[in-house]
Structures are given as C-alpha cells and as structure tokens.
Amino acid sequence: MDQIEKNKVEESVRTHSNGQASKSQRVDVMKTYKLFIDGKFPRTESGRYYILKNSDGDTLANVCKSSRKDFREAVVAARKAQHGWAAKSAYNKGQILYRIAEMLESRKAQFVSELMDQGYTSVDAQSEVSASIDRLVYYAGWSDKYQQVFSSVNPVESSHFNFSVPEATGVVAILSPENVGLIGLVSTIAPAIVGGNTVVVLASSTLPLSSITFAEVIHSSDVPAGVVNILTGERNELLSHFANHMDVNAVVYCGNESSEIQKIQELASLNVKRPLIYSTNNWMKEEAQNPYRIMDLQEIKTTWHPIGQ
Amino acid sequence: MNRTAYTDSPPIDQVGVEERIARLTKRSIKKESKVTALKLALSMVDLTTLDAKDTLGKVKQLCTKAMHPHDALPGVPPVAAVCVYPNFVRIAKNALVGSDVKVAAVATAFPTGMSTRKVKIEETKWAVNEGADEIDMVISRGHFLAGDYNFVFDEIAAVKEACGDAHLKVILETGELSTLDNVRIASDLAMNAGADFIKTSTGKIQPAATLPVTLVMLEAIRDFYYATGKKIGMKPAGGIATAKLALNYLVVLRETLGHEWLNADMFRFGASALANDLLMQIVKEETGVYQSIDYFSKD
Q1: What's the pLDDT tens digit per position in B201-250?
Q2: CB-defined contacts A:B, below 8 A
C-alpha cells in the first residue's frame, strides 16, 4: 500500500468514527420513564402509558399510567420496608436525608432542564430545585430533634412515670401536588420518611418527569428499597385505592377539589386511616416546611411506668 | 444399580417442562372463577407448624385457625389438615374434635431422615396410635443419590405397613435431588412402594416446592394411574406463600390430572403463610378493597 492510499484509508476511518457527518446521524438515547417500586424501576404491569408533550406539541416522554395493581405492589414493598426503616437511628435517617440533598445538588442541572422542558422558566426552575435541596436539608436536621421537642413527661396523680413519645404512623399514601414538579414531591416525602414512615407517592400527572429522576436520586442515596415508592398516572383512577387500602395507615391529599377531598375522607374511615388534606398552592413559601408536617404523620404513644416505693 | 430396577422412569425434558410451566402460569383467572379457586385452594391447605420452638399453645391456636380461618366472612371453608410433629398429634386431635380437619404428623426422623429403620417404624406407629390420620415421611436422600434404590423402596414399604389405615405421604425433598430426572425416579419409586401421596419438600431446604418439580411429579402420577389405575395424591410444600402462586399450582394440576384431582383428597398445599394470603384475596374479591394482615388472625 503506498502512502496516498494509506492516507485515504485513514481519512475514511476518521470521518466514519468521529467525523462531522456520522456525528449528526447519531440517534439520541432517550430515557424511559418508569415507575419506582421496591428499589427497582419496573414498567406498569398494565402496559398503559400516556404521552407527555411540551408547549410546542413535541413529545417529551411516554409516561407510565399506573394501575391499582402497581399501587398494591408498592404498598406491599412499603409495608415490608417500614419496620426496618423506623428502627434505624434518628442520626442515620438524618444522614440519609442529607445524602438525598447531596445527590440532588449534584444533578441540579438535569432537574432544571427537565422542569424547563415541562414549561418552567429558567428562573422558576432554578429556584424550585434549590428550594427542594434546602428543604431536604431542613428535614434532615429535624431527624434527631422532633422526638425531643414533641415528647413530654406528663404529671400524673399516681406513682407512675408517665411519658409520651411520637412514633411513625406506618405506610403513607401520598397524592402529591399537581401544580409543581419537584418541590411538591420533596415537601411531602421528606417529612413522612424522616419520621420513620414509608411512602407510596403518586406524582403530578402534568409534571411527572422530575418524579422518576428524583427516584434515581433516592436510589443512589442509601435509602433502603421500599421506603419510597413513586408512581405516575391519573389521580382520579387511583384516588379511591389510595384512600381505602386497608394496609395504608395515612393518606395525604394535596389539592383543592372538594369532591376528591370528600371521597378521601369517607374512604379513609374504612380502617380509620389518617386523612391529611394540604390545600396550599404555594409549595415554595417558607410555611410549607415545618416540624408539624412531621408530626402530622406520627402517633403519640403514652407509657405508664410504675415507680418504686 | 440399574435405574430401571423398579421403574421405567422416562428421562425428563427440562426445557420442555419449563416452557410448559411458563405457558400455564400466564392464565388469568378472574371474578367468580377466582373466588372459587381461592376457596378451593384454602380447603386444600395443610396448615403447618414444624418449628423446634413449637408449643402446646401454638398447636391449639393453629387448630382453631384450621377450623375457623376467618369467621368474619361467611362461606369460607376450613382447611384440609394441620401438620405437626408427632408429639403434638394428640393435642391437635383433641382440639379438632367435631371437625373434618385431619391431623398429619411428620415422622421418620423428619426432616433429615437420619435414623435407623427400627426407630422410624416405631415413630410412625406411635404417631398413628396417638391419632394421626396422615403420616408425612421423608426418604433417605443419601441412599437415593448413591443409587441404593432398594433401600429407599424397602423403607417406604416398611413405613407404609406401619401406617396401617393412616394415609402415607412421601416427602422426596426435591431440593436435594439435583435433577428433574431424579425427581421422576423418586416419584415412581415412592408410588410403587405404596405412597398415597407424594410430597415435594420438608420446607427446611431451599429450594422447596417449585412449579417445574410439581409438574414432573404430577406427570409421574398420571403415568402411574394409566399403568395401575391407582390414584395417588400430590402435595407441594414450602415456599408457596401467595394466593397467586397457589392458583398457578391449581392450573398446572387441572391441566395435568384433570377434575378428579381437583379436591383436598387428592391435592394439598403444605404451607403456613399461604392461608392468610388466600383469605386476604377472598375478602378483597368480596369487598373490592385491598386488605391488611393486621385484620387476620396469625396461625
């Protein structure tokens, strides 16, 4: 092979491996948005999905439309994980929440661009992601404090040492806010899990992308499988199952639809689960984070301990 | 020893077995059929407690659960039997007076089978004398795997004789038999030696019952029936904890042996957690609401 031919071969290799022409032909590898159940990312068992479009009408993703069976599986996972999660030390749970904040911080750009894909302005997206990270740190800090603050030693007449301490409610089903992408998830999940509960969350159906990306963050933050389970799909399809499942101990509803609120409250009575209604539309403001959100999902246990003499 | 000494056991096509199971487990059973199947499965359960920490109280509680699985819902059948260690047989028998629930006792140095034949026969006779309706024996897997089929055959025949009127279930402990070919040989051996039931596992070894193993054993039962006219029962045991899996077993049973085996005289589930899952699914079908274990009695 003479020198000219050699050059030709090298030239053709260059253009094919990393030249401009072949680069433009590369097919983008798109992420499949799936559910997050028991630490895994399954598709919905129903095989159904809906198409999420941006304001220009371009398809952003095919989003899983969860069925009641997906919800059932998620509750089984949450129940299995609850005892072990609640038994972890407060310090450890705080560390893990802080770890979620760290992971979220490191993927900030991705969350911002995903929110912008779904219609957020750059400024709004930036501030929502930052607020979400800060909120996780806020609840991480409360982890080893809320029990001290809200426990009490009670004066009683008899010779008993009488004290009350908060304990996790158990499995919490959350219908997260429709109008926000990320801050709604964080604001409802963080106070629930910091208190030793495990959760099954239905993401916003109009802004669902952050939920599964947030699941990836949780997946890489030492959160045990089953502690957080995230579903996407239609609220009106799943609402009654969230409210009447006998193995769910509390149901959190974020929204203002009075008919839905009534349904939640009625069905929750079946096993006397705790219904919590958060009607705020502004999840960014300071009031949306406070230790009472943790206490909303705690049961107070009072102990009568005999004292000697 | 030649493997055809007792039987002409055919070799098993493992890929074929697994493909058939994959096809059968795709069946979808809904609504009334599902309720019927769930209740049938419940009536086939051998409610089992075989822990070294078992107590008198636990066994009595198990017997109450066996007779009254969930009285809150009418139309729920009792289970088929309770399965206990021989020393609890009399207690269970007394606790079950007036019901059709049978008492099954594990015998022959369960779960290992590591003892002398004399001791095994004595234990069997004693359990029957205490009132056991059914005896679950284990085979000597060591002898079986060493190819000493004569020994295993004679042992089963001797225990069968000691059983008298009690039914004999022979546990093959398929998790220790390595291959489906061995499962088939052991099944044929046990049936020829006088087993009334063949049973997969003790529940003490992993893997316990699996669908492929069950299919192989059911086919052995079918071939034995064609050859001799005798109907042998089947009991998968261990690891069947969910209603969904139990229904898969019923589908495989129905497709292999047909209606005549679809009752508690011919088919049993050896299980403990399964009963409550079946109950939860039955209540779910009746009410439309997913259930919690908190509202069902433990054992």
Answers
A1: 999 999 999 999 999 999 999 999 999 999 999 999 999 999 999 999 99
A2: 23
CB within 8 A of A228, min separation 6: which ones?
A: A36, A189, A193, A198, A199, A201, A215, A218
Rounded to two decimals, the ipTM of the complex is 0.84
Q: In whole angstroms, what is the distance from residue B45 CA to residue B269 CA?
A: 5
The CA–CA distances, whole Å, from B136 to A59, A272, B42, B106 equal: 62, 45, 20, 4
Chain B CB contacts of A263 below 8 Å: none
B240 backbone dihedrals φ, ψ, rounded to 5° = -100, 95
Q: With CA atoms as reference, report the closest residue to B232 among B293, B190, B173, B201.
A: B190
> Is residue B73 less than 8 Å (CB to CB) from chain A?
no
For residues B88 and B92, give the distance between their C-alpha atoms in angstroms, rounded to a whole number: 6
Question: Is B289–A247 a contact, with Cβ atoms under 8 angstroms apart?
Answer: no
Contact between B54 and B82 (Cβ < 8 Å): no
Whole-model pTM: value is: 0.88
DSSP A40: B
For the stretch A94-141, pLDDT in tens is 999 999 999 999 999 999 999 999 999 999 999 999 999 999 999 999
Are B124 and B157 in contact by the 8 Å Cβ rule? The answer is no
Between CA A126 and CA A284 the distance in angstroms is 12
Q: Beta-carbon neighbour count of residue B29 at 10 Å?
A: 16
